[in-house]
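note to self: dont lose this again. the chain is below, predicted strucutre after it. 216 aa total, dont forget to put it in the shared folder this time
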Amino acid sequence: MTAGDAVLIALRWAVKTVAALVVLVLLLLLFVAGRVWWVARQDDRRASNAIVVLGAAQFNGRPSSVFTARLVHARDLWKEHIAPVVITVGGGQPGDRITEADAGRTWLTQHGVPASQIVAVSTGSDTLSSVRAVSIKMAQEHWTTAVVVTDPWHSLRAGTMADDAGIDAVTSPTRQGPAVRTRGVELRYIARETLAFVYYKLFHKSADLAHPHNAV
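---
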């Protein structure tokens, strides 16, 4: 075998290896995307200690359309006696005079949920820090189970993070709002959440580059 033949064989082996890795990565992404889609279509509203509403953008106390959709769903779950307490969570963006958690609490009190049955956890700048803050609060109150309310495509990652934070969590996603407006929007959210979920599983960090906290 000549040196040229050896180089050619090595190149062919390298190409086949890279091609196999690309196929494996694509299969993994397709599998995760399928899970994102599947969990998004589930609605587990079992009786729990608390309903957790993940924060989203708010404008001087007025919840954005994304946030409002989540709050409406959480209120409806509370009315169905799924849990006696609603936890709103989320800090503030630079320049905000009110946190997402407080904006959510105000909206809920204005729409039929007594203030005594709302707990505002006013910290968290992304999904992971939010669920960890909720976990600490729930542990202080000796609560263990929760129904997490967020957008459908965010449910897999949010529920996984909540479980990893020590919460016995299920998800009940909203069925209204911008996140489910069109098929194109849904596909974009699924693609984003697929990558964000893989990033979280690899690095145990949040990848909310286009985080729902910042969505309108």
